[in-house]
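Researcher: Next sequence.
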Amino acid sequence: MKGELRDDADNQKILLDFSPALASLFAFLFAVALTVGPWLLNFRSAVLYTMGFLVVLWVAYRTGVQAAIALSRTMRAACDIFRFDLLSALGVAMPKDLADERQKWERLSTLAAYGYGHARNIVYDRKQTSSETS
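Model: Next structure:
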């Protein structure tokens, strides 16, 4: 990925990493406030802390879900925009038409999911791979 799309994906990854950590922290604080709060604080304060931790936990969780959705959309857009760059980086010959492109991506997906034994007829562009290795 390049440019603004990469920056957007990086920001979404950071938010996606941060949100579950924050949600976990507030889940722990919620459990502590729920179990220990009534003995350490008066009842009203314990209820307010417990409710506050629960609200922040819910907000952090929803933020993480939205970040995951945004990251998946960004990655989908990146695959659409930079698909020829990816083919070139993999050393696969460029497709001739849309049907050929679909077949190439199906074969590459099979290779990624099931390994070399299941991939059929992937044609590599020897010029690109030899120039990159030297």
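Model: The chain has two domains: 1-81, 83-126. Residues 1-81 form one domain.
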